[in-house]
């Protein structure tokens, strides 16, 4: 089924990549459709019914959505009808479409770099604040209360696109760690910008010039343009501790990276 998810994602990217300013509207409409799908079991069952043709499912979506969403959104969700998905797989694929739509919308509005940074920063806040982590993960806390907490924290400190992505990510995270989910979204934003995210932890702040040199060195070592996020961590004893996206780095590359970082920040 991984192949189907990949194919759906690629087709959706092709659609969103040609959407222009309509991607900004799709950024709101695709998450709304994902929420509708979670709420309406009959819709999930109809779109996953193996006895219904793709054409019949497309007609159902057109009847339901054509007067409510942009053609771009309708085209993107209609991609789902070309694959045999269980209700659970359909929900997962729709959530992925929503994330892709929000990232495309942030890119179209020129906000993607800020969104990436704000997602990363909020992920670190969640990781470092026990009370906030508990509030975001306690099942007994009503969703609207969690949503209000996130809104209070981010409304005046982050772009609306970031707030929307955080809210959606927390709605759909399941049992996954919220900080990890938000970090993965930041990684996706970096990837969309053609970069790999590198988290560098240092015992002391890095000035602008040293940060630029560090970014250049990391770009050479990683072999791709780097989006550098620096975290000041007093627990780091000398040099820099770096995490390069979710990539597995073999021992020789890791040692090379560590030497480059130590030379530039020592």
Give your account of this protein's structure.
With 266 residues, this protein is mainly α. It folds into 3 domains: 2-108; 112-191; 195-265, no CATH class. The chain contains 13 helices and 3 strands. Strands 2-1-3 form a 3-stranded mixed beta sheet. Strand 1 (196-202), helix 12 (208-222) and strand 2 form a beta-alpha-beta unit. The longest helix has 22 residues, at 87-108. Mean pLDDT is 87; it is low at 248-252.
Attribute tags:
266 residues; mainly alpha; 3 domains; three-stranded mixed β-sheet; 3 strands; 67% helix; globular
Strand segment tally? 3
Mean pLDDT, as a whole number?
A: 87
- Give me the number of helical elements: 13
Task: Bin the strand percentage.
Answer: 5-15%
Whole-angstrom Rg:
20 Å
Helix content: 55-70%
- Total tally of structural domains: 3
Taking pLDDT < 50 over at least 5 consecutive residues as the criterion, the unreliable ranges are 248-252
How far apart lie the N and C ends? 48 Å
Structural class: mainly alpha
Largest sheet: 3 strands, mixed
Strand order of the largest sheet: 2-1-3
């Amino acid at each position: 089924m991984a192949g189907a998810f990949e194919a759906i994602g690629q087709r959706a990217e092709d659609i969103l990549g040609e959407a222009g300013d309509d991607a900004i509207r799709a950024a709101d409409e695709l998450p709304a459709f994902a929420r509708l799908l979670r709420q309406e079991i009959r819709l999930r069952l109809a779109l996953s019914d193996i006895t219904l043709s793709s054409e019949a499912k497309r007609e159902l979506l057109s009847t339901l959505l054509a007067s409510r969403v942009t053609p771009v959104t309708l085209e993107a969700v209609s991609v789902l009808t070309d694959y045999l998905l269980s209700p659970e797989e359909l929900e997962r694929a729709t959530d992925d479409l929503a994330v892709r739509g929000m990232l495309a919308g942030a890119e179209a509005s020129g906000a993607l770099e800020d969104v990436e940074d704000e997602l990363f920063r909020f992920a670190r806040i969640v990781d470092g604040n026990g009370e906030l982590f508990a509030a975001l993960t306690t099942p007994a806390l009503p969703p609207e209360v969690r949503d209000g907490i996130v809104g209070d924290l981010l409304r005046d400190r982050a772009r609306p696109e970031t707030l929307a992505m955080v809210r959606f990510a927390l709605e759909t995270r399941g049992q996954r760690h919220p900080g990890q989910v938000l970090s993965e979204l930041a990684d996706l934003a970096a990837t969309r910008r053609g970069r790999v995210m590198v988290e560098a932890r240092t015992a002391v702040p890095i000035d602008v010039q040293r940060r630029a040199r560090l970014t250049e060195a990391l770009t050479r070592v990683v072999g791709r343009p780097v989006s550098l996020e620096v975290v000041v961590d007093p627990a780091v004893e000398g040099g820099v501790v770096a995490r390069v996206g979710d990539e597995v780095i073999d021992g020789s590359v890791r040692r090379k990276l560590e030497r480059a970082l130590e030379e530039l920040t020592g």
